[in-house]
Design goal:
about 250 residues; alpha/beta; Rossmann fold; seven-stranded parallel beta sheet; 8 helices; about 15% strand; globular; binds nicotinamide-adenine-dinucleotide
């Protein structure tokens, strides 16, 4: 029986939450994974949890908004894994505030982590993918790109992710590299757990399927885009939100 080719993936913001769930799904599917995060303590703990599944795993510490740290991370991944087949741009933050209270730093930080980081990682990674005529990139956006109260910075960043995705999909369509986006709705992560019980219950009620999503729900969608057979699937946005994008939630 012929062996499946070895594949190497990068997942940013993978020390916890959705990124960790995606990394775990990739590893359990036989893909070697480099987890990138700036929280070294959580990153080490995440890497420890992912050892022993058969695939190789490495944690690379770095700030995804800094070009020199991104470049250094890519060099470390190449030295470790020899190639990059998959990139999942997942790192993100929120700094929700009404417009009149929003500071320049609230704007810049959210745009830098959610959007600029994806430009930096796409540029550095595609350079490695081009000679092999193969690559799969998934950019994590959010259902909030449609607009969210007190989220002008986050919504603009996540809308930018979709425009970046569509433009790069066109630019690299003929080079074997696909670029797609996922727009998650409400997903159970440490952030959701920090909300009080009444807000959690209101949010749950606002989801048509009447449950909160899991990192595994997002990881399932990521796997669809990463499939080497999905070569005709590019520039698309897939909502993973239990139908919440179909209505106008009040919370
Ligand atoms: N949780 C949700 O309900 C939800 C919904 C829609 C979209 N999203 C998106 O999914 C992605 C993951 O969200 P999450 O809820 O798992 O978040 P999280 O806060 O649980 O995890 C984010 C990870 O990114 C890392 N990170 C943040 N800034 C970084 C930086 N500058 N450099 C390196 N690492 C950095 C953090 O250390 C953390 O490990 C984000 O892009 C988020 O916007 C989340």
């Amino acid at each position: 029986m012929s062996q499946l080719p070895r594949r190497v993936a990068i997942v940013t913001g993978a020390a916890q939450g959705i990124g960790f769930g995606i990394a775990k799904k990739l590893i359990t599917n036989g893909i070697d994974v480099a987890l990138i995060d700036y929280d070294q303590t959580k990153l080490s703990a995440a890497v420890d949890q992912l050892k022993g599944f058969g695939s190789k795993v490495i944690g690379v510490s770095g700030n995804v908004c800094k070009i020199d740290e991104v470049q250094s991370a890519i060099e470390q991944v190449i030295a470790w894994g020899g190639q990059i087949d998959y990139l999942v741009n997942n790192a993100g933050i929120i700094r929700d505030k009404r417009l009149l209270n929003m500071t320049e730093a609230d704007w810049d930080d959210v745009i830098n982590v959610n959007l600029k980081s994806q430009f930096l990682f796409c540029q550095a990674t595609i350079k490695e993918m081009l000679p092999r005529n193969f690559g799969r990139i998934v950019n994590i956006s959010s259902r909030a790109w449609l607009g969210g109260f007190g989220q002008s910075n986050y919504s603009a960043a996540k809308g930018g992710v979709i425009s970046l995705t569509r433009s790069l999909a066109i630019e690299f369509a003929a080079k074997g590299i696909t670029v797609n986006a996922i727009a998650p709705g409400i997903i159970q992560t440490p952030l959701f757990d920090s909300f009080d019980a009444s807000l959690q219950s209101k949010l749950k009620e606002s989801v048509p399927v009447k449950r909160i999503g899991t990192p595994d729900d997002v990881a399932y969608a990521v796997m669809t885009f990463l499939n080497p057979d999905a070569s005709y699937l590019t520039g698309q946005v897939l909502y993973v939100c239990g139908g919440r994008s179909l209505s106008s939630p009040s919370v």
